[in-house]
Write a sequence for this structure.
């Protein structure tokens, strides 16, 4: 628990909190540009958050305490996820507390709470959204786990910081299993973050919405927290992607100036990632809800095949 | 006299075997009962002869017992029963007579082959008759199977007893007295009970046909 | 003047006395009195044998050793409890008009004579007298089975008499052959059918004759034990007679026949030296267990079902004795005891249940627990005991039989597994609706005498959990007597 | 038998026997006070709970003590009852004591007047059930094991038949008893083999025997068959979804939580302890059966509409997962990899004890809901959170733990299981190396689906609006019921937050069974749970929970401080459709519909679709267990066919019977000649 460690941990937290809405804004901006519209601007998410925090919260008559407590729990989980994933440096005192499986568990905890909260209100949309969220979740979660297992098979450990350190120091070798895991990971992150092929983040059309249906009943500060948590989730997912597939440039322990260098590298990587995400969204069209299961099924199988390839070639 | 006795014993044995065969093929009840009486008489003669030859008094006693029971009392009772139940019609069998005869011969051959190794060892003068006795038992057993009327079945049962008593007397010069009495008592009481049953069956089903004694079964659906 | 005089004398006397006064009202109590006397005499006899070991009585005509003395006590005890059970049962039957005074007289006297023949069969040393006792037992039970004079009971009695008569005739032929073999070894003048003398000299008996003799004896007495395929008379006879008779038939008469087979097996094993006798018994035993199990699922009449269950258990006992090792003999004897106790207890409860429902068809007997909890629970516990649930003794013996079978004859284990499984499934499927659920039955006028039922079940429970060393010594000596 | 010295220096075994006798005495007291329901509820059951806690304490102290042996005068003459308390039985006694304490207290508050069998009788059956379970774990020879094993089945059979007025319950009771007995026969034959012709049935002798691989495998398969029938492994699971819902809830809690574990204890005892030969394919068999059962169980639990059947199928799933863990541990042990075998076994044991706690908690909650609403179908419940908070919140913790979510015990068990499945680089045969990661993938999928089920269970019952008007009068749980549920909740939370201490408890068990343990690595890593090595994997539930709570509290305070906390109650948004009714919420079938669609081949669905001409159109879909039609119906019809054939033997004609006797005589004579 060196001072340096605590500093880098706090830094990671703060960057997560600050950069997450920026990343969402950046992706939306790019999407609008690609659809040759002039988007609402890069800082729109911050303005929206600020506006929502001002408003008075309207809560449904039948909603129980769970409904009002859920946004805080979900925001807390996403914040912890941001702290665990090694974004700037691998010297994180909190990281031994939770390894890859715990991270997936954390996402699952958030998902369960958001679904329960949606069902608590007792309208048709809430339960509809909850059912679809759980449907996506029960296929995406094992796929994400398998992707993380691919990496841990190579590096021999499930602790994220150790994975990043070993992958960063390895010479530039092409791991076929990581290729398959990469494809699977992109499909899973699209589904988890409610991006276009699986679910459209902006729409309120009952037939198609998954994520929106969950937060339909929320307003004001609860809605703000949930939106912020959603962007944090996107930020966490992209950081996991970067950590697994582009680990270079993350600072090691007791290297203060490397810490300073890591920030711009992270921002650059996130920008490129955001552009790629916007590109994928504009190119692909939304799928029917029952095609999503095949989509995620293929992701799961790809990850498992990646694992097998890893065992077959004896890499790692 | 000593050489004559074994031949006489074998004569009586063959006589009993012949009677068993005739009982199988017999169609009329009255003559069936008479044949049974004659078989009893042959058995009595055999035991008297054996008693005389082997100087064993208890053979005489068993002979008298058989005489009283199997030759006099039981046939008389069966005749009275038939007159009272006016059962005079012929006795049809399940299989036609020729097949039963063929099966009978098969049985005789089987019992002879079975008894051959044993009869050589037996010291008693009528060793050979064990095979014949076994044949009588199996033949009367088969008679009980093929008859579909109550009275012939009873007669079959009794002629089986005759075969057994004959085996006992010829092969081992009779059983110990106490056992002889027991067997005789059991047979007597058995016949009495069968008589009582026949009355009840007659009264319940007003026919002595075994076919209506087939209600208790498990093969129904 | 050993206790044997009383053991045999009292039932004979009872039979004669009740022949004249059987129809009186107090005849039932006299019947119980006589059975009680017999039981006390049996207890004296047992103590005597335990202290002084086996002994020959009245110039060797009667022989008491550990094997038959415990069977004598068991028989006396079960006939006592059945007599107690039959008091209220017969009164209800009389109210229903099924039992007229002359029939009551016949019933009581035959009941006592029947226990006399069984006790005679156990205690006599002469194989011929065993045969006479078996024949006499058949005669008395034929009259008992046909006491209702319905067409079904008549048919059952007729078949019972003819089939058992033929069976026992074959046994007589076997005895004659045995006598012949003895005649050759002991010489003509002092050749006897006394089991003890034959037992001493069984080594020199001629193998071919003894083989033939054992076959006839096994098939003869096997018919009385109810081994498949000689079993056809048993379901009819046990189902049609009054329930006390079924209880005594299922509980005790089968043991007498099995005892006779065991006596012959000891001689045959001595004479032949090979395991032929054991293998034959195992074959018949296994066939009986499997075939009877399949019969169980087809039954509609409750007493017929339990008579098939008796066939199955007797098959299991024959299989155990067929295996022949001391542990298997011990298990067989234990199973014989516990089967008699539990099966008679079940017949007691079934008797009350059928009287309540007025029919023996199982589909019309429902919800016994609701009508009369003691009868309901009695039947449930009894059935659980007979199906081999652990606290009861049947499980202990089945445990020993199955594990020794798995050890010595692994080929037999699948058959036993299949048969016990199917038997369990079929009996429980029939009994559960009878005991649980709603019902339209009404309680009876006379309260049922359920003391015997729970007395038997407690004894079975004791035999299951803790066999007192006193009783265990008995079994071990008896098992050793059976050799192997 | 040892003399009754001062209780101070009694063996742990004696204390356990004291608890068992106390339970039996309470049972008998129940019979005496047959109808006095108040006495039974408020005195006898709590007394039972007290003795359960005593048992737990004894088990805790016995876990580290050496094995103790005792011989009771009961049993067969040559085979008196041998009892043995070693670390494996101590662990299971701990499990029994812990769970039964909670369930007994819950049961104290559960009884109402005039319901089915008199409460006194239920008290007897319940405590006899508990006593026999405790004795099964102590048994040290085949006879006493079989006696108490079937007494357990016997007493739980009467518990299942508690209200036997309903025909379905009778059918369930019959099925339960039948499969239990068939299983017991299998175990009996297995013991017959294990004593390998020595005639000595004590476990000590069985351990000394060295069976040939063939007979060893036959014994192992018989054991898996016998104990699997009781645990609910795949082909023999049909009784579980019938029997557990049929029993009153506290007893189905005990049956699901504890009895299934005792069946798995049997596999552990025979597979690891008695059979000295270890063959690798035994592990693969156990893993395959386990995973098939788990997948089958979880898929079926998602589509159930009756809450207790849903939990019963979820128990099947968890039993499957535990079996897979045991199979993996056996596989490692066969290849001599002690450390990994210990890891897999610890995962299985951890899953056992956490499942015992959270499943009993969930069954108790269904009991409370059933008593409050009298309704078991999920379709008619909903919105009970408002009326029954004391039941809802503990159930939420149970649901989160069952779904395997981080701060609770379920997650630690799943975490250990995944760890053990992941690091299998050393297996000699490449096929196994390939197989184990695929199994890890299946476990992840099964755990995720478990989460799906639990969201459906909690959401449909407690959240949303009440789907039926009469739910409004649902009264909350009584004092005893709350106490029982709180005890079980503390169990779940403790299992979640203090894994190191629990693993230290399991150390002697893994040392006994696979001669390897995790204690040394776990002990010195303080708060962190480090099964193999710090770099490999680590997880600190306490810090994890602290992190979530801290961020929860921080945001709550900051938002209140920086902005405000104003709130107003408004009707929910109805998207312009004013007639929103409670029936518009998702029903239980609806929530399970996607799974039904994805896992189509698993089910045997009977659909009744409305036609155009229906006066009252109705839509019904019944999901049935396909195994019932593939395996059990043909089996029953085969038995019927054979018995019809055998029935012909008894045609009623005396001539035919005489023929049988005649032919038998001839045949036997020919055979003997």
């Amino acid at each position: 628990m060196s001072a340096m460690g605590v500093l880098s941990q706090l830094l990671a937290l703060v960057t997560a909190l600050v950069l997450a809405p920026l990343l969402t804004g950046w992706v939306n901006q790019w999407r609008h540009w690609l659809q040759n519209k002039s988007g609402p601007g890069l800082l729109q998410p911050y303005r929206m958050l600020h506006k929502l925090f001002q408003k008075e919260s309207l809560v449904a008559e039948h909603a129980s305490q769970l409904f009002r407590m859920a946004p805080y729990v979900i925001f807390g989980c996403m914040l912890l996820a941001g702290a665990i994933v090694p974004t700037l440096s691998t010297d994180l005192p909190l990281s031994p507390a939770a390894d890859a499986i715990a991270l997936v568990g954390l996402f699952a905890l958030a998902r369960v709470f958001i679904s329960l909260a949606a069902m608590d209100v007792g309208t048709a949309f809430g339960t509809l959204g909850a059912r679809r969220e759980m449907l996506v979740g029960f296929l995406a979660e094992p796929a994400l786990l398998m992707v993380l297992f691919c990496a841990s098979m190579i590096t021999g450990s499930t602790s994220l910081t150790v994975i990043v350190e070993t992958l960063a120091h390895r010479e530039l070798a092409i791991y076929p299993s990581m290729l398959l895991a990469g494809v699977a990971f992109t499909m899973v992150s699209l589904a988890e973050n409610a991006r276009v092929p699986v679910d459209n983040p902006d729409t309120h059309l009952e037939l198609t919405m998954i994520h929106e249906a969950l937060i339909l009943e929320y307003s004001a500060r609860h809605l703000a927290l949930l939106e912020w948590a959603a962007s944090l989730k996107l930020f966490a997912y992209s950081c996991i992607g970067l950590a697994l597939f582009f680990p270079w440039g993350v600072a090691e322990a007791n290297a203060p100036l490397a810490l300073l260098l890591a920030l711009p590298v992270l921002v650059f990587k996130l920008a490129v990632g955001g552009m790629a995400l916007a590109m994928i969204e504009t190119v692909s069209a939304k799928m029917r809800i029952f095609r999503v299961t095949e989509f995620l099924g293929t992701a799961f199988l790809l990850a498992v095949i990646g694992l097998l390839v890893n065992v077959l070639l004896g890499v790692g | 006299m000593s050489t004559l006795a074994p031949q006489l014993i074998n004569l009586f044995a063959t006589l009993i075997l012949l009677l068993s065969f005739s009982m199988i093929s017999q169609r009329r009840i009255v003559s069936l009962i008479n044949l049974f009486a004659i078989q009893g008489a042959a058995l009595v003669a055999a035991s008297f002869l054996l008693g005389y030859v082997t100087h064993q008094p208890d053979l005489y006693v068993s002979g008298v017992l058989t005489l009283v029971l199997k030759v006099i009392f039981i046939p008389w009772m069966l005749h009275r029963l038939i007159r009272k139940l006016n059962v005079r019609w012929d006795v049809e069998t399940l299989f036609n007579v020729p097949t039963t005869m063929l099966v009978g011969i098969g049985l005789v051959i089987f019992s002879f082959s079975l008894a051959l190794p044993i009869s050589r060892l037996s010291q008693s003068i009528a060793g050979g008759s064990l095979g014949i006795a076994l044949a009588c038992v199996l033949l009367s057993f088969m008679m009980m199977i093929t008859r579909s009327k109550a009275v012939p079945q009873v007669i079959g049962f009794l002629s089986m007893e005759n075969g057994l008593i004959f085996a006992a007397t010829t092969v081992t010069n009779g059983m110990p007295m106490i056992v002889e009495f027991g067997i005789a008592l059991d047979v007597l009481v058995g016949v009495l009970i069968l008589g009582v049953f026949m009355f009840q069956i007659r009264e319940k089903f007003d026919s002595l046909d075994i076919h209506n004694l087939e209600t208790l079964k498990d093969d129904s659906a | 003047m050993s206790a044997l005089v009383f053991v045999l004398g009292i039932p004979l006397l009872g039979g004669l006395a009740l022949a004249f006064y059987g129809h009186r009202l107090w005849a039932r109590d006299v019947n119980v009195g006589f059975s009680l006397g017999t039981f006390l005499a049996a207890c004296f006899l047992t103590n005597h044998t335990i202290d002084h070991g086996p002994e020959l009585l009245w110039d060797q005509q009667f022989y008491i050793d550990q094997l038959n003395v415990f069977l004598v006590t068991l028989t006396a005890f079960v006939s006592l409890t059945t007599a107690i059970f039959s008091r209220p049962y017969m009164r209800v039957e009389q109210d229903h008009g099924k039992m007229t005074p002359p029939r009551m007289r016949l019933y009581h006297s035959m009941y006592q004579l029947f226990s006399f023949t069984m006790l005679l069969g156990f205690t006599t040393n002469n194989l011929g007298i065993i045969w006479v006792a078996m024949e006499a037992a058949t005669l008395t039970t034929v009259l008992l089975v046909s006491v209702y004079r319905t067409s079904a009971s008549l048919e059952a009695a007729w078949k019972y008499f003819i089939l058992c008569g033929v069976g026992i005739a074959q046994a007589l032929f076997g005895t004659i052959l045995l006598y012949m073999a003895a005649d050759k070894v002991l010489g003509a003048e002092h050749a006897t059918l006394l089991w003890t003398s034959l037992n001493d000299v069984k080594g020199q008996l001629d193998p071919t004759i003894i083989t033939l003799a054992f076959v006839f004896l096994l098939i003869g007495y096997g018919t009385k034990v109810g081994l498949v395929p000689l079993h056809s008379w048993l379901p009819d006879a046990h189902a049609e007679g009054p329930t006390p008779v079924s209880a005594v038939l299922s509980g005790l008469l089968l043991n007498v026949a099995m005892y006779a087979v065991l006596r012959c097996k000891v001689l045959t094993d001595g004479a032949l030296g090979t395991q032929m006798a054991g293998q034959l018994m195992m074959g018949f035993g296994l066939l009986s267990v499997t075939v009877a199990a399949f019969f169980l699922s087809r039954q509609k009449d409750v007493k017929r079902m339990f008579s098939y269950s008796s066939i199955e258990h007797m098959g299991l006992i024959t299989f155990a004795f067929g295996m022949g090792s001391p542990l298997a003999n011990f298990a067989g004897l234990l199973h014989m005891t516990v089967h008699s106790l539990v099966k008679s207890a079940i017949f007691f409860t079934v008797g009350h249940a059928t009287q309540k429902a007025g029919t023996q068809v199982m589909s019309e007997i429902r919800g016994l627990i609701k009508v009369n909890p003691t009868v309901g629970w009695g039947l449930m516990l009894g059935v659980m005991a007979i199906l081999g649930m652990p606290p009861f003794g049947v499980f202990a013996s089945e445990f020993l039989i199955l594990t020794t079978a798995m050890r010595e004859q692994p080929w037999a284990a699948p058959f036993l597994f299949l048969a016990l499984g199917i038997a369990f499934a079929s009996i429980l499927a029939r009994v559960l609706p009878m005991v649980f659920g709603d019902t339209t039955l009404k309680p009876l006028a006379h309260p049922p005498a359920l003391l015997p039922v729970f007395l038997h079940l407690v004894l079975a429970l004791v035999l299951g959990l803790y066999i007192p060393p006193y009783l265990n010594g008995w079994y071990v000596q008896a098992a050793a007597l059976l050799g192997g | 038998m040892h003399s009754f010295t001062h209780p101070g220096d009694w063996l742990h075994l004696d204390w356990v026997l004291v608890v068992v006798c106390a339970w039996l005495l309470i049972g008998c007291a129940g019979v005496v006070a047959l109808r006095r329901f108040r006495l039974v509820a408020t005195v006898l059951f709590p007394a039972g709970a007290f003795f359960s806690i005593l048992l737990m304490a004894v088990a805790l102290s016995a876990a580290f003590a050496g094995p103790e042996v005792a011989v009771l005068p009961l049993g067969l003459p040559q085979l008196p009852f041998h009892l043995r308390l070693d670390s494996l039985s101590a662990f299971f006694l701990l499990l029994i004591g812990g769970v039964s304490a909670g369930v007994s207290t819950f049961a104290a508050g559960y009884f109402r007047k005039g319901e089915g069998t008199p409460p006194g009788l239920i008290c007897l059956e319940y405590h006899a059930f508990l006593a026999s379970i405790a004795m099964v774990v102590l048994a040290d020879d085949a006879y006493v094991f079989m006696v108490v094993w079937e007494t357990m089945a016997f007493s739980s059979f009467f518990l299942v038949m508690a209200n036997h007025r309903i025909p379905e319950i009778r059918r369930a009771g019959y099925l339960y008893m039948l499969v239990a007995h068939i299983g017991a026969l299998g175990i009996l034959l297995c013991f017959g083999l294990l004593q390998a012709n020595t005639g000595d049935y004590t476990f000590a002798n069985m351990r000394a025997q060295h069976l040939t691989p063939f007979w060893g495998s036959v014994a192992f398969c018989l054991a898996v068959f016998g104990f699997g029938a009781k645990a609910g492994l795949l082909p023999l699971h049909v009784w579980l979804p019938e029997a557990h819902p049929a029993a009153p809830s506290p007893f189905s809690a005990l049956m699901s939580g504890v009895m299934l574990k005792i069946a798995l204890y049997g596999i552990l005892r025979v597979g690891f302890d008695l059979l000295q030969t270890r063959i690798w394919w035994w592990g693969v068999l156990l893993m395959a059966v386990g995973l098939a059962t788990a997948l089958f169980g979880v898929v079926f639990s998602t589509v159930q509409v009756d809450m207790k059947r849903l939990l019963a199928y979820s128990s099947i799933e968890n039993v499957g997962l535990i079996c897979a863990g045991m199979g993996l541990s056996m596989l490692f042990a066969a290849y001599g990899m002690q450390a990994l075998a210990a890891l897999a076994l610890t995962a299985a044991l951890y899953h056992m004890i956490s499942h015992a706690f959270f499943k009993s908690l969930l069954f108790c909650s269904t009991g409370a809901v059933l008593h409050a609403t009298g309704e078991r179908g999920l379709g008619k419940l909903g919105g009970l959170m408002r009326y029954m908070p004391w039941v809802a919140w503990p159930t939420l913790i149970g649901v989160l733990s069952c779904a395997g979510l981080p701060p609770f015990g379920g997650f630690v068990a799943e975490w250990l299981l995944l760890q053990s499945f992941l690091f299998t680089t050393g297996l000699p045969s490449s096929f196994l190396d390939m197989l184990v990661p695929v199994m890890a993938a299946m476990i992840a999928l099964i755990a995720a689906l478990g989460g799906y089920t639990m969201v459906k269970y909690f959401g449909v019952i407690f959240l949303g609006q009440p789907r039926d008007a009469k739910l409004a009068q649902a009264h909350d749980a009584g004092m005893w019921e709350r106490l029982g549920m709180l005890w079980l909740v503390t169990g779940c939370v403790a299992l979640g937050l203090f894994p190191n201490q629990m693993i230290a408890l399991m150390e002697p068990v893994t040392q006994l069974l696979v001669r390897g343990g995790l204690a040394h690595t776990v002990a010195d890593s303080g708060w962190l749970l480090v099964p193999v090595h710090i770099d490999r994997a680590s997880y600190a539930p306490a810090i994890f929970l602290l992190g979530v709570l801290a961020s929860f509290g921080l945001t709550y305070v900051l938002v209140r401080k920086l902005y405000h906390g104003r709130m107003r109650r408004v009707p929910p948004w109805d998207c312009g459709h004013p007639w929103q009714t409670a029936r518009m919420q998702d029903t239980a079938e609806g929530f399970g519909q996607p799974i039904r669609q994805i896992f189509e081949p698993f089910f045997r669905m009977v659909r009744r679709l409305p036609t155009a001409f229906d006066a009252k159109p109705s839509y019904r879909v019944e999901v049935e267990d396909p195994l019932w039609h593939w395996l059990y119906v043909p089996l029953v019809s085969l038995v019927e066919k054979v018995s019809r054939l055998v029935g012909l033997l008894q045609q009623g004609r005396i001539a035919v019977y005489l023929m049988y006797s005649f032919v038998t005589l001839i045949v036997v004579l020919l055979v003997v000649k």
About this structure: Residues 4-212 of chain B form one domain.
